[in-house]
Amino acid sequence: MPPKIVEETANLISTMEIRGAGKIGRAAAQTLKDFAIGYRDADHIKFLKELNTAKETLLNTRPTAVSLANALNAVMSGVKGNSVDEIRNGVVNAADKFIVQSKKAVEKIAKMAAAKIKDGDSIMTHCNSTVVVKGIINAHEQDKRIHVFATETRPWQQGFITARALADAGVDVTLIVDSAARTFMTETDLVLVGADTIISNGTVINKIGTSQIALIAHENNVPVFVCAESYKFSKTARTDDQVTIEERDTSEIVEPSKLKGVKLRNPVFDSTPPKYIKAIITEYGIISPSEVREVITKI
Ligand code: RUB
After folding, report:
1. Are 61 and 7 in contact (CB under 8 A)?
2. Gap from CA of 84 to ligand 1 centroid (Å)
3. 196 is catalytic
4. Which residues approach ligand 1 with their CB closer than 6 A?
5. Which ligand 1 atom is at minimum distance from the Cα of 106?
6. Considering 34, 85, 127, 240, which one is annotated as catalytic?
7. Please, what's the b/e burial string for 245-264 (b: 16 or more CB within 10 A of its CB; e: otherwise)?
8. CA-to-CA distance for 229 and 233, rounded, in angstroms?
9. Whose CA is nearest to atom 1 of ligand 1?
10. pLDDT digit string (tens) for 266-279?
11. What are the tens digits of pLDDT across the range 10-63?
């Protein structure tokens, strides 16, 4: 049985109260740290076993964002020594390091994304990405006159979170339904989206519908920029079929009794091929999708 604190975070991630690839990674790292701090037994072998169970419990919450696995592995890489104290210190230090670096990366990428936005630009974004929202707000704070199309993002409506955050910051934002993306792409100068997982061939896995938006952007010669911290890069997946696309309960789409006899599917992420992506903005700089492989070997 995983400890209560781990079960609680796992539950918050599964039910999407904690959501978004970066936040999921940081919450998981923080939880392993809190578990280690609160551990009271003196048996270090038992501690290691329980740490691994905690890690697996957190890992099994959502399958698509590699940021979760990368965050947990970063924390577990701090495990060394033959006593509970040594192991605890290692976990705490590694978790702190991951969280600090992750937040720094978000700030750095947001600055670079803001620099891509010109005065007068109209931006389209999909879902809710912390780093994208920060980048847009940065550009607005630089007194650039900008406008944002935020897609609703069915079925969870994360676009509402994006639109609310931008409006609260004073950004001129219009919420549109997902199927209006093509209609408004003709008024869009650039697309900014986040990522859950980036694989070595430059494919970006993000919220379902991202690939349609990227395709429409491509048709209209509108550049698509993906904002992604390096812990969203997968060191193992070589093709997109090696990444599990999460399928959530279909009751998120419609109350099942309303459509008796109708099959429903609810995949919540999709893959955007590299040819539809202008560049990926990372804390190490702005790279083309073809450079992902090289960056992965360095991180
Ligand atoms: C969120 C989503 C976001 C990425 C990036 O999906 O697809 O675009 O996770 O977010 P969900 P961030 O709501 O299903 O978790 O930039 O905040 O890491």
Report:
1. no
2. 35
3. yes
4. 19-23, 65, 127, 129-131, 158, 194-196, 206-207, 268
5. 16
6. 127
7. bbebebeeeeeeeeeeeeee
8. 8
9. 20
10. 999 999 999 999 99
11. 999 999 999 999 999 999 999 999 999 999 999 999 999 999 999 999 999 999
